[in-house]
Each structure stands twice: as structure tokens, then as C-alpha cells.
Design a protein that fits this description.
Elements: E1 5-7, H1 8-15, E2 26-28, H2 29-39, E3 49-53, H3 62-75, E4 80-84, H4 90-94, H5 106-110, E5 121-122, E6 128-131, H6 140-144, H7 153-158, E7 167-171, H8 178-186, E8 189-195, H9 199-218, E9 224-230, H10 237-249, H11 264-270, H12 275-278, H13 283-299, H14 306-309
Length: 311
């Protein structure tokens, strides 16, 4: 992402200042971090908030949404760690990192007990780091099976970086196994991107049954579950009917904001650039921002930690 540049107007908009206060026509991601520090426009630090993006049904656009969400948090000045849990490494690719070339993945941290700071790589966006993934992750469920406290490995690993980040964004594969169980046990919030079709209901039912099982058997209760409708096209009758059904059956979990159908997501992902850097004026970027704002309102303001504030 080192090649990403902000126009004078966009740079000012992100920082919340007037373009007249800037002298250059273009700015880099590094410039953004330095200017935030100089102006003191940093959000308050918070205890690490772990947010999992998961749906047992594939093809819902989960990775595009999660990486765009993570990038925007970092662009706003938060310290963000993206954890790619999928052996296909799509979240890594969306952030401009080739997972195939990564020397270490979460497998090393969870199974081989490599300190996670030795696994984390920089994305090129200051404040946005990544635990990459590749095909070495494909055997992690088998490797977890014989281990003691196997459901809590990821939660324990993340304790090593609790003071270094405000958010951990976990992008999970569309399946259920020990790795995704680890992710659910580590998470505070669960995001479930769905399409506005009736096939999504089966996946939701299975996911909620799984979450209920965690509450009963492992005594882990998620703080929030957010269902977000993705790739929504209100001109389709089936989409409107599916949205109404979701509003009826999952009113306490369904976000009011939908993410509209937007071809810019696919174009941005193919270039390894989050949509906020590819086209910040697109419908997709506006909708992700609105989702982020609604979520932040629901989870509440961060509690200031003196130890973190002084770090």
C-alpha cells in the first residue's frame, strides 16, 4: 500500500481540517500518520476490542467488508491488527500482502508457540498490521485437536499484544472447526455479513445455534452480534423481501445500515487496495463508514486506560 496517495482535499477531509491548511498537492499514508501525531488528532486508546467477521455460508463478501472496516479504523488513527484466519489468504491480499510469501502465520503462534510479534507484518498503512495467512493454515484444525485448552489458544496468544492495539479484526473462513471456535472464544463482537437472499437464513440459523452452544457449554457470551446486509440492491424484489424477513426474525442483531451493491469492492480487492483508498466517494466506502459509526454507537466509547494512554 506504499503507493497510495491522498489528494489535498481528501487528506484534509480525513484529518478534519481545511485544505487551506495544507501546502502539498498529494500526501502519503506515512504523511497521514505524521500529521495526526503533529495535530494531536488521535482517538482515545481503548482496551483491545476483538471483532470477528464470520459466516458459515461463503460468498457473502465478508473479507472485502472486514478489510475495508479495518483500514478505515486505522485511517481514523486507531491501532488495528487484522488476523487472517483463512488458508486462502484473501484478507492478506486485500491489504496488499502476499500470504504465500509470508514466513510465518497464525499457525506458528498457536501451534509452535512463536511469539505473535514475530508473526505480525506491516501493511504499509501506519497503525494497520497483519497476521498473514497461507496454505500452512489448512492443517491447523488437525494440529489443535490433541492440544490442551485447544479452544483458548487464540485468546491466550492475543494477550501478548493487548496493549499494542485498539482493535483486532479477525477474518474467518466460511466453515466451522477448531480454529473458528478459537476465534469465537476470543471475540467480543461477532459480525455476520449476509446477502439479501433466503439461502442466508440457513447459515444464520446454524451460526446462532453454535453461539448458543458456546454460551451453554463454554460459558462464553459475546458482547454483541451484528448482522450486516451486504451487496444490497433494493431494486430486486427478492432482496427487499429477504431484508424484511431479517428485520422480522433478527431485529436485535440486524444493523440498520446496509452495504449497497458496489462493483468498486471487487476492483479494489483485485488491486490489493481497500475501498477507502481506491474510491473513498464510492457507495461502498460511504456504507462501510456508516456501519462503523453505527457499531461504535452500540459498543460505546472506549474506556481510557492510563497505561495505554502513556504508551
Amino acid at each position: 500500500m506504499d503507493h497510495i496517495r491522498y489528494s489535498n482535499r481528501r487528506f484534509a477531509e480525513v484529518l478534519g481540517i481545511s485544505p487551506r491548511e495544507l501546502s502539498e498537492p498529494q500526501y502519503s499514508l506515512k504523511d497521514l500518520a505524521e500529521m495526526r501525531q503533529k495535530l494531536g488528532r488521535l482517538p482515545p486508546r481503548r482496551p483491545l476490542r476483538k471483532q470477528l467477521f464470520l459466516n458459515f455460508k461463503g460468498g457473502t463478501g465478508k473479507t472485502s467488508v472486514s478489510t475495508a472496516y479495518a483500514f478505515r479504523l486505522a485511517e481514523m488513527g486507531h491501532r488495528v491488527l487484522v488476523i487472517d484466519l483463512d488458508s486462502q489468504g484473501h484478507a492478506s491480499k486485500c491489504l496488499g500482502v502476499s500470504g504465500e510469501e509470508a514466513e510465518k502465520t497464525l499457525f506458528d503462534a498457536i501451534i509452535k508457540k512463536t511469539p505473535i510479534e514475530h508473526v505480525i507484518v506491516k501493511t504499509g498503512m501506519p497503525g494497520l498490521d497483519l497476521v498473514p495467512s497461507n496454505l500452512t493454515m489448512s492443517t491447523i484444525d488437525l494440529s489443535l485437536m490433541p492440544l490442551a485448552a485447544r479452544e483458548f489458544r487464540l485468546r491466550n496468544v492475543l494477550k501478548e499484544v493487548e496493549s499494542a492495539y485498539d482493535y483486532a479484526i479477525l477474518d474467518a473462513p466460511p466453515s466451522f472447526g477448531l480454529l473458528n471456535l478459537n476465534a469465537l472464544m476470543a471475540a467480543h463482537d461477532l459480525f455476520v455479513p449476509v446477502l439479501a437472499d433466503f439461502l442466508s437464513f440457513h447459515g444464520l440459523k446454524l451460526l446462532f445455534e453454535t453461539v448458543q452452544g458456546l454460551e451453554e457449554d463454554l460459558e462464553h457470551v459475546l458482547d454483541h452480534i451484528f448482522i450486516v446486509i451486504n451487496a444490497y440492491n433494493q431494486t430486486y424484489k427478492i432482496a427487499k423481501e429477504a431484508k424484511e424477513a431479517l428485520e422480522k426474525h433478527y431485529p436485535e442483531f440486524l444493523l440498520k445500515q446496509v452495504i449497497r451493491q458496489c462493483t468498486k469492492f471487487a476492483q479494489a480487492s483485485s488491486e490489493g487496495i481497500p475501498i477507502f483508498a481506491y474510491d473513498p466517494e464510492s457507495k461502498g466506502a460511504h456504507d462501510i463508514q456508516a456501519v462503523l459509526d453505527e457499531v461504535r454507537e452500540r459498543i460505546g466509547a472506549p474506556v481510557r486506560l492510563k497505561a495505554v494512554e502513556s504508551a
